């Protein structure tokens, strides 16, 4: 359910300008179309903001990974991989589409 094949920046990557309001009848899940409560709000949180907040809260970053795969087809021209996840076609720029972060509370 993307708007086109181009990878375009439409919103800020960095935080601080408030919520983005979306009105859509679909979500990133494969569930049925929404018939009510279609308005949602999203806030941007950069990777640096997330990591810094966790560290300042006393957590240890155990791993941080980036992936060029998504569990849903964000853009219509994405292709399903053997793992069942979705990737941009060969020839498109390789960019991180998703990150995974594992943090833990250090033991005394």
Summarize the structure.
With 108 residues, the protein is mostly beta strands. It has one domain.
Task: Outline the structure in words.
This protein is mainly beta and 108 residues long. The protein has 1 helix and 7 strands, in the order E-E-H-E-E-E-E-E. Strands 4-6-5 form a 3-stranded antiparallel sheet, with no helix packed on it. A two-stranded antiparallel ribbon has the order 1-2. A two-stranded antiparallel ribbon has the order 3-7. A hairpin with a 5-residue loop joins strand 5 and strand 6. The longest helix is centred in the middle third of the chain and has 10 residues.
SSE arrangement:
Layout: E1 20-23, E2 39-42, H1 47-56, E3 60-67, E4 69-70, E5 79-80, E6 86-87, E7 98-104
Antiparallel strand pairs: 1-2, 3-7, 4-6, 5-6
Structural shape: globular
This entry's quaternary arrangement is single chain
Largest sheet data:
3 strands, antiparallel
Rg result: 17 Å
Give the helix tally.
1
Order of helices and strands: EEHEEEEE
Portion of residues in beta strands equals 25-35%
Which segments are poorly predicted (pLDDT under 50) over 5 or more consecutive residues? none
Helix-strand makeup class: mainly beta
Query: What distance lies between the first and last C-alpha atoms, to the nearest angstrom?
Result: 47 Å
How many domains comprise the coordinates? 1
Average pLDDT confidence is 89
DSSP E strands, number: 7
Instruction: Give the spatial strand order of the biggest sheet.
Output: 4-6-5
């Amino acid at each position: 359910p993307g708007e086109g094949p181009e990878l375009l920046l439409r919103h800020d990557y960095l935080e601080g300008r408030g919520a983005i309001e979306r009105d859509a009848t679909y979500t990133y899940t494969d569930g049925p179309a929404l018939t009510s409560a279609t308005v949602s709000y999203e806030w941007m949180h950069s990777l640096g903001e997330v990591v810094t907040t966790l560290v300042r809260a006393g957590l240890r970053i155990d791993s941080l990974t980036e992936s060029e795969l998504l569990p849903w087809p964000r853009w219509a021209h994405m292709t399903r991989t053997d793992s069942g996840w979705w990737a941009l076609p060969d020839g498109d720029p390789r960019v991180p589409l998703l990150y995974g972060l594992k943090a833990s509370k250090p033991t005394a």
